[in-house]
Amino acid sequence: MEKEQDLPLLCYFEGNVIPLADAKIGILTHAFSYGTGFFEGIRAYYNEDHKQLYMFRALEHYERFEQSARILMISLKKSAQEMVDLTGELLRRSGIQSDAYIRPMGYKADEVIGVRLHDLRDEMYITVQPFGNYIDIDRALNVGVSSWKRTDDNMIPARGKITGAYVNSAFAKSEAILNGFDEAIMLDSEGHVSEGSAENLFMFRNGVAYTPPVTSNILEGITRLTLMTLLREDLGIPVYERVIDRTELYVCDELLLCGTGAQIAPVGSVDHRQIGNGGVGPIARALQSRYFDVVKGNVPKYSHWCTPVLSETRQPVTI
Ligand code: PMP
Question: What is the rounded distance in angstroms from the CA atom of residue 300 to the CA atom of residue 316?
């Protein structure tokens, strides 16, 4: 069962828990005109055996939400932990018993003309909804390096998940799709590899994993951090954060994209150069299997990343 039939999806909107269908903003809202909002994307996974829904690394997501708020000079009235608890309540009261997606957003809410960050009313919402896979993760993606460059930290900081910045991602994604690729990889303004349109990236060469550093204008991804841990601790693969050149992608042994939405998406070719045998590589396959065990709350060592929603009792923390 995906959702209890008679329960409407609830959201938190500007201070109240209300049905999603009733949450509306005016057309002059500052964030709608000028992109002065920021958001998070969080997943919750349903574990049929446990009859439990787990939010994955929700606290870390809300801590990044707080960082985006600071960058955008938006004050949040709730702490990260309060937002985690509130999100659990929304999922529970909406009757969601399937994989789900959580979208919190903070924004400049005044309905005024004039671009700025200061002297504006700050508001936030949190929505929850049942949700499956964002991109096909059972086959390898064919990706293209975008002609659009990733925005620099002193243009629109990629480290903040800022709504306006996603126009940059949208340019890259649509260019890639319309040119026949599945996804885009963006370079930074110095020509080094940054990230996908909404995913971080791992490249594997000679049994070693490499991922661009946080100074390569990437979003500091939570899936990226998770995979760094799983690669090192569980797969015994060393991980280095270092600058990556475009043509390293052409000659690597394996490549994958990762993110909350995309999860773990193996790459089969870059700019028409085949990677490995063009299919899902052995590291990606092993990582996917471990990742899905972890996010579903089946690995006690990582159960502290999984917040149960459907009962108030927390799982014991085992390291
Ligand atoms: N980069 C960008 C631009 C993104 O939008 C996302 C998705 N949030 C990611 C990377 C991956 O981040 P995370 O693993 O925290 O979802």
Answer: 9
Q: Supply the DSSP string of 27-41, one letter for each residue.
A: TTBHHHHH--EEE--
Q: Which atom of ligand 1 is nearest to the CA of 161?
A: 5
The rounded distance, in Å, linking the Cα atoms of 265 and 256 is: 6
The residue whose CA has the least distance to atom 5 of ligand 1 is: 198
Catalytic residues: 161
Question: Does 169 contact ligand 1 (Cβ within 6 A)?
Answer: yes
Residue closest to 254 by CA, chosen among 239, 269, 272: 269
More confident residue, 136 or 52: 52
Is pLDDT of 316 > 70?
Answer: no
What proportions of the chain, in percent to the nearest 5, are helix, strand and coil?
A: 30, 30, 40
pTM above 0.85, yes or no: yes
> Which residue from 239, 234, 238, 251 is spatially nearest to 286, judged by alpha carbons?
234
> Which tens digits make up the pLDDT trace of 167-211?
999 999 999 999 999 999 999 999 999 999 999 999 999 999 999
Which atom belonging to ligand 1 lies closest to the Cα atom of 158?
3
Q: Which of 42, 25, 117 is nearest to 80 (CA)?
A: 42
Query: What digits encode the pLDDT tens for the residues 148-164?
Result: 999 999 999 999 999 99
What's the pLDDT score for residue 136? 66
Whole-number Å distance between alpha carbons of 67 and 141? 32
Minimal-distance CA residue to ligand 1 atom 9: 199
**Ligand 1 lined by 137 (C-beta under 6 Å):** no
Q: At what angle do helices 58-71 and 222-229 cross, to 10 degrees?
A: 140
Each residue's pLDDT tens digit, 10-50: 999 999 999 999 999 999 999 999 999 999 999 999 999 99
Tell me which residue has tokens 């929603």.
309
| Overall residue count recorded for the chain in this entry | 319
